[in-house]
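Chapter summary example: a protein plus nicotinamide-adenine-dinucleotide.
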Amino acid sequence: MRILVTGAAGFIGAHLTARLLREGHMVTGVDAFTPYYDVRLKRDRWAALAGPAAGGAQARLITCDVCDGERLQGVFAAFRPECVVHLAAQPGMRASLSAPFVCQKNNVEGFLSLLECCRHATVTPRVVYASSSSVYGACTALPFVEEQPADRPVSLYAATKRANELMAHTYAQLYDIPCVGLRFFTAYGPWCRPDMALYLFADALSQGRPLQVFEGGDVRRDFTYIEDVAEGVVRCIGVPLQARSELFNVGSGRPVALLSVVHLLAERLGVTPRIETAPLPPGDIPATWASLARIQPRTGYQPATTLEEGVARFVEWFRAYAASGAGSGAVR
Ligand SMILES: NC(=O)c1ccc[n+]([C@@H]2O[C@H](COP(=O)([O-])OP(=O)(O)OC[C@H]3O[C@@H](n4cnc5c(N)ncnc54)[C@H](O)[C@@H]3O)[C@@H](O)[C@H]2O)c1
């Protein structure tokens, strides 16, 4: 299948591209290499996972801002994708508070530009796009099920992701574009973003700095190993749809307290953690937990990586790459 991946040099995008190539798909990636975090990390990640260093088939990577509709339309015309996996976005709840217009532009305008390209494409592709567990916002009923209302976002980031779901629903109805929204839950693993908890913890631990955990480490996240995330995406690329627009949780279904993750990391890194506790910042939510009751029976999705295995693989990469000073963790 011809698959266009947006945000292809990103954490999920590069791993997914590698997986799609292994399955024999033809992949074209686009990425704007936004400066939210070190662009060198994005380039190294792409090269290692989907470029020359990976060996085997390679994907083409085009530097393109998805907000540039004319240029994106050119990519569509040349590649004629049968499926688009849209991952390009400004991630991060905190970044949406400090740079709201950047978040709005990349997440809302970028997605509209993509949907318009799909609407005018000669072959209408299936759109599989990144939503987020953050759309559940102030919902306290756990686990999060797709049927529950997601109308109480607590950050602008969450609001843009929910807007994407509503936009997809609208375009699916108006223009018969099949759309599949994936609510990702805290992906982690090698080549992850430097603004993510696991990376921040590992960075602090390896430098002997105290690390901050919220609410005494009692905050729970449904950590999902990156290969399991890619597996979920692949399964949703192929799932027979029951409606023109559908939504699926892609998580591990096993929430873990942040404090346990810190101890696991510290053990792997061979250090004793110095822990400071802080209140939950505005825009954050105390717990996420994915119900897999929809995705599992529909796609056979079964996350396979335990937290112990996943953390071990992350630490191996972190030691070899990040701790050597390559791809600094600077976040705008
Ligand atoms: N990683 C997670 O745990 C997680 C959880 C929930 C949702 N998501 C969503 O999944 C997607 C991928 O996340 P990620 O962790 O890989 O983030 P990432 O920042 O590593 O990847 C996103 C990529 O998109 C690119 N990009 C941003 N704006 C662009 C634009 N306008 N045009 C073209 N490229 C652009 C960036 O350069 C980056 O390489 C995002 O939509 C994110 O919101 C991720």
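Key point: The mean pLDDT is 94.
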